[in-house]
Design goal:
This protein is an alpha+beta fold. The chain has two domains: 2-61, no CATH class; 65-165, Tetrahydropterin Synthase, Chain A (2-Layer Sandwich), CATH 3.30.479. Helices cover 31% and strands 37% of the residues. It has five helices and eight strands; from the N terminus they run αβββββββααααβ. The chain has helices at 2-12, 95-101, 105-122, 126-131, 133-147, and strands at residues 17-21, 25-33, 37-43, 46-50, 56-61, 65-75, 81-92, 153-165. A three-stranded antiparallel beta sheet has the order 3-2-5, with helices on one face. Strands 6-7-8 form a three-stranded antiparallel beta sheet, with helices on one face. The longest helix is centred in the middle third of the chain and has 18 residues, at 105-122. The N and C termini lie far apart (59 Å).
Length: 185
């Protein structure tokens, strides 16, 4: 029965369709053109006509989003180990750039922010970090805005939710700590 659905989809691909972009979305429609490459049209909220045989259309949410940063353990330049976590508030400013230039906003923003935090903290000592957390937030915000330029995103705010001293304990053994199936009975 799946073949009937596939057949009908192919048959109706010759017919234009109404395509709705909701108020909290923006979209992009691409149309290949002979000898001129691809025409790209940014779609605002409303009704649009899409020819499935010739055009591809994609939507993206443009509402403000907040992404969490996982806790990251970092050594300061004076040998202190701290853990930092936070969140980043952003929104999609350009659907065209956002859809065509970056794959996964949340994952990329998280990775960029963790790298920026690492670079900043490893060049500071613990006392200078304690004195001014606002400087750390400003540095992350500035770095994210610069690194995500061209992605169609507007990075609005960086929040630091947790900062604390920590100590990582790593065992360097050649033997496994726990052997499955061993019993001391």
């Amino acid at each position: 029965m799946d073949w009937i659905s596939q057949f009908l989809n192919k048959l109706f691909s010759f017919v234009p369709r109404l395509w709705i972009v909701d108020p909290d979305e923006s979209g992009v429609r691409t149309t290949p053109r002979l000898k001129k490459g691809i025409k790209i049209k940014e779609l605002t909220p409303g009704w649009w006509i899409v020819w499935p045989l010739l055009q591809n259309a994609e939507k993206i949410k443009i509402k403000t989003q907040v992404v969490d940063l996982r806790p990251q353990s970092v050594w300061t330049n004076d040998g202190q180990e701290i853990v930092i976590s936070g969140s980043i508030k952003y929104r999609v400013a350009s659907a065209k750039d956002s859809i065509l230039n970056v794959y996964d906003h949340d994952a990329n923003i998280q990775s960029l922010a963790l790298g920026i935090i690492f670079d900043y903290v490893t060049n500071k000592n613990l006392e200078s970090l304690k004195r001014d957390f606002k400087l750390l937030k400003d540095e992350i915000l500035k770095g994210l805005r610069e690194a995500s330029r061209g992605w169609g995103l507007k990075i609005e705010v960086v929040y630091l939710t947790d900062i604390g001293k920590t100590q990582n304990l790593r065992l360097l053994l050649n033997e496994p700590i726990l052997r499955i199936g061993d019993s001391d009975a």
